[in-house]
Protein 1
Amino acid sequence: MKDTIICRCEEVTLGELEELAKKHHSSARELKLLSRAGMGFCGGRTCRQAVDRVLTSITKKDPTDALPLKVAPPVRPMSLVDLGGAAKDE
Amino acid sequence: MNNRIENHPILGELEKRKKVTFQFDGKSYEGYEGDTIAAALLANGIRTLRKHEESGNPRGIYCNIGHCYECRVTVDGETNVRACLTPIKENMVVESGKVQPSPLDPSKENIPRTYAEYMEMEGEK
Amino acid sequence: MQVYDAVIIGAGPAGLAAAIQCRENNLNVVVLDEYPKAGGRLLGQLYQEPDGTWWNGIEESKALETKAEQLDTDIRLGVSVHHIETLDNQFVVHTKKENFTTKNVIIATGAAESPVPVPGWTLPGVMSIGAAQVMTNVHRVKVGEKGIIVGINVLSAAIAQELHLAGIELHSMVLPAKHIISGEQANPRKVIDDLSRVAHLAPSKFIQFGSKFAKYKWAQNLALQFYPKNGIKMWEMPIHLRKAIKQINGTEKVESVTLVDVTADGEIVEHSEEEVQVDFVCIAGGLYPLAELAAVVGCPFQYSEELGGHVPIHNERMETPIPGIYVAGNITGIESAKVAREQGIVAGLSIAKKESDSPDIIEEKLQTAIENVKATRKAATIQFHPNIPEGRANVSAAFSKIIDEQKTETTKEKIS
């Protein structure tokens, strides 16, 4: 089970998440930055619930009303071209 | 190959729709108007839509409604298009997602990470 | 520059119903959805009501879409919203193609599926249960020759029946293996209890399956103790409350799964591995409210197990504490599409009232619509959690608390 991928986008495993969370006593944000789980293409829509459970199983804290992570726009991946950049160097 | 559900006890017979020809990784396939890329490919028996950029592990649809981005493909030159949300069009050119080179990953190639390592590797040559 | 009265994000039952109310009150609205068809996840739904009639999501969606079109509603499909920006008394809804400036926003983005990670679940052929539903009923494409469902709950049972109707062979329905993520979903005792609690609603054979175990703990324990080795069959498919999936096997795609026996508490029985040939696997980990845009615009949240996770705080009028931001449908809690549709009517009328010169007339309709939400909830044949009304009451209380605090702040400011 330790080798099971939790974050599909970044291929982060359960073992990696548990190890990082324990070693660094991570908050949700720290665990995301350390592991990259939830930082891939889907923005964490697929793995967020699972990552939160890994974390709460270690901290033994119930979920609070506050969202574990700040949600920042854009909530869909954007290319630099979409944001107004040029497609090619000119 | 036909994986279409032609008859359904409640939803009835599959309506006749216009045929659409499109390309996937250089091969020609047929689907129907209104099909998404993912549906048309699955009807043709194709599940694998991309390889993970780094590991090369194969991927297909996972959520099928645009949330997970696992089905992202290149459509007429536009990268990272979700196959599950994008309807096929006549002569559309679809390409699967490929493994990307990762020159900065020292685990894959022998690249020095520090100046000391660089000097050491130079010395070995 | 055009300023809309309302931008509605999501063309599912909530969004379309809201749009219809807005258009009936002559408001200038646009409905945005990233899916190429209108109807949202209602599209895939197909189940039998207790009276024997079929709830056909495609027809229900079509009815809503047709009505909206008759009212000249501007519905834009294939458009993904990625940001809601706040200006003074206005919002700008950002999409890849263009931006929409509006006085009000209804966020009706529905739900997403929670994963139950299984070793091998990234292989092509493994999909969420909702993915199989859409492929089967909306696209009418077979997801495979023979599959297995991981996760035994109301949603997966409803979709198992849909796959069966479409002539797709299922080996069985099994539990996820016990680990920190699957949690109670891997506990046969919890699963059987959940099933028995929704049993009285009996929309179909499945829920009647739950009623076989009655509500008494001793009966449930007995049922688990003597659970038949070959499962209990429903639509020719065994349901295994004493088997779990250990891993999914294959190199390029799904080739088989490894199952194990579990005890009545979900513990894996050693040396009980059994390999089963399948070419697809559906993972059913339940639904959670998809509220990312509500978070971006600054809505406060409340965690509610009954409602499926973190929900943006709102009142019965579907208002959030942010003036001009409304919510409707599964973003407010996981419930049936019928409840979502009624909530959409409420949200639409709330905006109509806000923008109207004669709000009293609309207030009357709004009160009726609010009552309809409750009545629909009570009569719902598909219920995702037995304590939804409690969850709803807590969220409403949280809304009142925030508004009271805001009032106190304003009074303090006036005094000082």
Note: Chain C has a mean pLDDT of 92.
Protein 2
Amino acid sequence: MFTVALAKGALLKESVSMFSNIGIDFSAVLEDSNRQLMVPSACGRAKALLVRNSDVPVYVSYGQAQLGIVGFDVLKEQKLQVSNLVDLGFGACHMSIAVKSSSGYLSASDLPPNCRVASKFTNCAKNFFDQIDLPVQLVHLSGSVELGPITGMAEAIVDLVATGRTLKDNGLVEIEELFKSSARLVGHPLSLRLDRGPLQEIIDSIQIQSQTNLFPDGKK
Amino acid sequence: MTLQPASGARDLNPQQVRKNHLIASKLSSLYQLWGYERISPPHIERLDTLMAAGGISNNEILKIVSDEPLGLRPEITASIVRAASTRFNEYERPLRFWSTCTSFKCNQSIDGGIDIEESFQSGVELIGTKAINAEIELLSLLIESLKIIEIDQEYKLTLLIGNTYLLELILSSFDSTKIEEIKNILCDLDYIALSKLDIKDEQKIFINKILNMRGKPEKILTTLKNIYGSNSYIENLKELFTIIEPLAKEKGIEVQLDPTLGTKYKLYSGLTFSLVSSSPSAPVIIAKGGRYDDLVKKFSSSDHNCFGIGFSISIDKIRELVSSREEMKVNNEKVLIAYKQSASLYKALKQQKEWHNKGIISIISHEPQKTNDETNQLLKSNRCTKIEWID
């Protein structure tokens, strides 16, 4: 039996669907009545751990879950030791720098040195500003980061953008994209090295499944 | 005032210390039977030594605030090689050393700070022999060590063996500008990076094949031989497995050849190995080691006999996998000596000595005991198994 760490929230439905397509039914986790955090699959071959998005790489890097599905943004932010196995294609979004639309800033390099930048992804933000040699003061927020520029606490934010609607509704505008993100299948490196086939079979099936989803007409 | 120990620092209770001591003393007796001598290098070394000539990153070392760059050792090999290349330079090779030590590593925490990782290890170093027999000796000793520690049979043990030269052989067929990237892909099992790598499709298919190549040594060596032809690395490994596999099998240890097995430290040049135990929740590396000839070369004043190989066993990790039966057997009797009048203290001390002479733990009540309830309470709180009354 293997264990998969699944992120609650936006990726859950498609993660469950991905496993369902390869014959592993975790649909019980989607039921409103479900309060269990560790849910066995209907076939009994696997169990799912229902965890927060940011905890998926933690469970996988410690080996409590051999596999996990999580956004690339979380992996890039945490840099934990997990193996990147399959780009699943769903959950597409991108990490961006946004400022108040009235600010006049058109790119990241326009931002004044040592300005305040609010983000939930401070490691990603730090890496980016280090790369462009712009010293900034990073303010870590746990959510609603759009409030940073609105209240005047920060000049800019670094945050995930899916449709851009939240930014627009709050009078913010994107000025630079840091990277694109999508859901990834990750694995515990040591468990993968010890695997004698069953885990690899699952990974291969998911790989084929994700290719089918990405290229339904068979073109690559 | 913060009274908690620093994050990651060990603060063991008596039971954990007893178990550590029991495991360490069993291992040390075994090492001595194999002709290894104990050495005890300092906890603090110069950063140059601790970084093992570039094998260990500066960030992983816990620094000491001082006028010169010093740090706490993150592992023991570099310190022992330093000693072998200086104080023991004139000694006849091979040098066989063992040590039981505490090491300190710095890990980057998610919030960007550092986590200290203090660990208690026991290990050996065999310095000055190139022969494959040195590798066979080390792995045999490791297998024997596992037997003597008596890890619970419910935990399955697997010995993963890799070789940095095999990895170099695999990498040698690629464009030199891509080698570092491909090496990371192979060592991190990063299939996504492979899919995005700018190389020909047939090369991707080949790397994918290598990524999935691990398992029974004979099978993997045959596959490698079919690809690269016969060479000394493959032949040496074949010889090694001929002896090691049956020895491991006798002890219930499965052996697996894994050409892409990397180690966190870039110390090793040649054979590398990790001994993995299944544990109740996740597999755990309980011992690791390898050949570090390049390190010996960098620390030596001459090129003569610059060979070294060693392993370290993580006692902290093994402690949780070893049954408490033996410890219970050793510590099952503990006598409380109680008395009703202060004047009996002298007699109580004499009686305590009698128990000690028999090798049995006995402690004396510090106050005269007035009631049976009070004495029973004392018996319980001191975890004693019986009371002896002194008149």
Note: Residues 29 and 39 of chain A are 7 Å apart (CA to CA).
